[in-house]
Amino acid sequence: MRGSRLADHRRPDRACLRAAGGGSKTLPGRTRGWSIRHRLMLVAAGVALPLMLLSAGIIWQLTANERENRREAILYATRTLMNAVDAMLNKQIALGETLASSPALQADDFETFRAEAERAAPGLSGAWVVVSDADGNILLNLSPATTQTIRRRTAAGMDLQKRALAAGKVQISDVFLGTVTKIALIVVEVPVPRTGRPPLALSVAMDARIFLPLFETWNLPDGWLAGLIDGKGNFIARSRDHDRTVGTPASEGFRNAVRTSREGWNEFPSVDGEPIANAHVTSRLSSWAMGVAVDQARFEAPVLRTLTTATLAGIAAIVASVLLALWAARRIANPIEEIETGTHALLLRQEVTFEPTGVPEVDRALDAFNATAKVLQRHEQERDEREQHIRIIMRELSHRSKNLLAIVMAIARQTARNSPSFSEFERRFNSRIQALASAHDLLVEQQWGGATMEGLAHAQLSAFGLEKIAMRGEPVKLRAETTQNVALALHELGTNASKYGALSVPEGRVELDWVLERTEEGPPSLRLTWREIGGPKVQPPEDRGFGCFVLERVTVNALGEGRIEFDEDGLVWTCTVRPEHLIGAGEDAADTPAYLADAQAKRRAS
């Protein structure tokens, strides 16, 4: 601003300002109030406090939702595994009850029953059948791993058998160690009531490892642990360290949770002493329970990530609002202070008079502007601007004149090299200079901001008869230097076509196409194609004159890529203009002369 600029050159010290303002910069009667910085900081605080409360509520809700989602996922896995275990037990119960209803058992025909049981063996999924009488004597044992004869059941087996016979329904045992097989077993005990005879008991014995494939099928995530326990709280199967833990008690927390509820979620130490989060579900068929646990740290990790992200986002929003308030205060207060200081530099002998607004910075700015309007010497500033414009115009004129003279010298040199006589040189030279002048007219009309491809083509080819020239293409604008080079190329093509090509015969015509070739890597390039149709047959020239020089070398060096093809149907010239020679959307000012851009900027500032 003008006040700030003047203050840079003649900025008075504070003592001078106090002397000029009657001993103080704050005039008598001025009410003191909050500064702009203080007011904006208050606004920022008023916005930040609700944001903090809202962020805290959102963070709390996000973490609660994340924990609930994790709990539901683990509970779902637990229910699914427990249902799978119950399905396997149902299958063994159904097969056991089917075998228990065999007439062979009713008639003590154990050989026939053995055959029936062996036929049903594939459906037992690795389990085997044992038949015993009411006294616990084993009548039939189909265990494939038993090589010695076991005559009586163990005490635990007798207890299970008595419960089944007394209840008259299937009983499912806890896990125990087989006396002969030395492996962890579980038994489905099926009573076999018989009319007029003592009842029998049919036991479907299973290796506890029969449940391990369920864990593998579910494919538990890393860090998750699944365990199946019996009614006493001992492990039947475990997804990790099964052989070490089978038959051993589960953690106290797991056992207490199962005794408390049929389904639930608890947090307690594992058998290894590590804190875990555990979901459990009790079987519908037995006293067994399935638990799926995850390390507490792993369970909390996604929650902590959500909490951290939300907290950082909330802090960032609050910090951003405070910084924005500080930035806005500085942007408002600093210019006002600079205007005040610069204005006082011009008013050391003037009395300050303005009505107070209650905002100190605004009051001082009004004082400065009121006083500056009376004493500012606008004619001096305008003279400086005019001199600056003249210097810029001279530099711009020198630059463009050098470019133009270089082009004219190149045209003259190449034309002279390929002209058989001075008169021919003069004719060709004048024609080419006229083409260049036509391009300059277009640029001047656009204030050297480039030219449209369509306007340039019409200007250069109108002399050759536009009725025989078909022009098609997308709206595109060329930069100033590019306009001159394309103008020379079109002029040479038109001249050649009117003398030797398609425009030299009535039935001949020319097609001029241009298209933007877009790619994913960057801005589009422009492909120009000049195609002559219906003209005399063409042959590659023996001597390559100025036209070939322009179409081949100039286009390659100045624009991008160029190629001439002498087809029998007519000459074809293609040229690819690189993206940097085009003016895209919002880039029209790229070629605007510096003096025009400066003048426009000053007009906007004033």
Key features of this structure:
alpha+beta; single chain; five-stranded antiparallel β-sheet; Heat Shock Protein 90; 606 residues; 2 domains; six-stranded antiparallel β-sheet
Q: What would the CATH topology of the largest domain be? A: Beta-Lactamase
Strand composition percent = 15-25%
- What spatial form do the alpha-carbon principal axes imply? elongated
Number of domains: 2
CATH class of the largest domain: Alpha Beta
* Distinct helical segment count: 17
| Main pleated sheet | 6 strands, antiparallel
Q: What is the number of strand segments? A: 19
Mean pLDDT: 77
Low-confidence stretches: 1-29, 585-606
Binned, the helix content reads 40-55%
Amino-to-carboxy terminus distance: 9 Å
C-alpha Rg (nearest Å): 49 Å
CATH architecture of the largest domain: 2-Layer Sandwich
Structural class: alpha+beta
Q: Can you say what the CATH homologous superfamily of the largest domain is?
A: PAS domain
In short:
The protein has 17 helices and 19 strands. With 606 residues, the protein is α+β, with helices and mostly antiparallel strands.
Describe this structure in words.
By secondary structure, the chain is α+β, with helices and mostly antiparallel strands. It has two domains: 229 residues, 2-Layer Sandwich (Beta-Lactamase); 220 residues, Heat Shock Protein 90. It is 52% helix and 18% strand. The strands form four sheets. Strands 1, 2, 3, 4, 5 and 6 form a six-stranded antiparallel beta sheet that branches. A hairpin with a 7-residue loop joins β5 and β6. α3 runs antiparallel to α10. The N terminus and C terminus are likely disordered.
